[in-house]
């Protein structure tokens, strides 16, 4: 049975295994061009609210769930999931054995699919199959340009603190330019909580655009699509930052993949990617294991990293690369999502490490 908007859409289908956070998942800009099928069966039962959006609108193309959402029951609920999706033009279907579907995706790879919702049940199956077949896929596609901000803006909201909402930051210490390839809001909040004065710039920002803000550090955000395609314009900018400055650089997910490309590494398309909130990642420097949030369908090829680039984190699920750093400079990035939202906060220390690198580069003048 369908819910949310009516109509039809095509996309890549990926599964997410998180047990919470369907609203954050649906509004993560990195899901542009993808439909998400949830292995957790209760989706929609706590409704939706304005605080949990990771961006203004859902950017995942649609959702597939096991049970039709029941009436929302939560003190934070403002709108039932079905109405929330309908208001944003997003199609969903329920009553699907999503764990069986997930097993098929794990076996065969993420398929190209058509998703349709018609309350009258008038489906032209052949047309839907043709639509799915004509979907070109995500390889070679720059989707960051579709989800980035139109203009630069200042971000000053910090991480959630119950019960009064997101607090505003008071005296930020480090000027950070965050390049927005489809940034999740909680990443910006985590940067603000770590003491960064965050200015967000559009994905096409040039080296000169960035330097005009006299930053103490540069942050490269998450985002949808193929890192090699967005890298066509992002990599030259990143190389300029690396070659012409000594600024600390920190990247997450798409930002990680594009930093690796700028340093001479390669990225590959995965068969079904990593999408969940329980992915164990090992920090090679400390030997510690972090349980992390993940959402990626491309990965950095750890074998392709040139000399001077250290592999700092690996996935304990499949050994794939999850982090890199330059040997002698505060330039690093991770594949997983230290901002969580949804997911565990084990990796939040990475934001503090970024702030510490900026503090070390530009120590605060001693107080008189
Ligand atoms: N969350 C992200 O930034 C995803 C990066 C990239 N689009 C991928 O699928 O791998």
What does it look like?
It comes from Sulfitobacter porphyrae. Belongs to the CarA family. GO terms for molecular function: carbamoyl-phosphate synthase (glutamine-hydrolyzing) activity. With 368 residues, the chain is an alpha/beta fold. It folds into 2 domains: 133 residues, 3-Layer(bba) Sandwich (Glucose Oxidase, domain 1); 218 residues, 3-Layer(aba) Sandwich (Rossmann fold), CATH 3.40.50. The chain has a 10-stranded mixed β-sheet, sandwiched between helices. Strands 1-5-4-3-2-6 form a 6-stranded mixed β-sheet. β2, α1 and β3 form a beta-alpha-beta unit. α8 packs across α9. It is globular, with a radius of gyration of 20 Å. The model has no long low-confidence stretch (mean pLDDT 96).
Topology diagram in text:
Blueprint: E1 2-4, E2 7-16, H1 22-26, E3 34-38, E4 62-64, H2 81-87, E5 91-93, H3 98-108, E6 112-117, H4 125-134, H5 144-147, E7 153-155, E8 174-180, H6 185-193, E9 196-202, H7 207-211, E10 217-220, H8 227-244, E11 249-252, H9 254-262, E12 267-283, E13 289-300, E14 309-315, E15 321-326, E16 331-334, H10 349-361
Parallel strand pairs: 2-3, 3-4, 4-5, 8-9, 8-10, 10-11, 11-16
Antiparallel strand pairs: 1-5, 2-6, 7-9, 12-13, 12-14, 14-15, 15-16
EC number: 6.3.5.5
Family: Belongs to the CarA family.
Enzyme class: ligase
Number of domains: 2
**CATH fold title of the largest domain:** Rossmann fold
Please give the radius of gyration in angstroms: 20 Å
Overall strand count: 16
Physical arrangement of strands within the biggest beta sheet: 7-9-8-10-11-16-15-14-12-13
CATH class value of the largest domain: Alpha Beta
Which residues sit in consecutive blocks of at least 5 with pLDDT less than 50? none
What is the SS-derived class?
A: alpha/beta
What is the H level of CATH, i.e. the homologous superfamily of the largest domain?
Class I glutamine amidotransferase (GATase) domain
- Measured as a percent range, the helix fraction is 10-25%
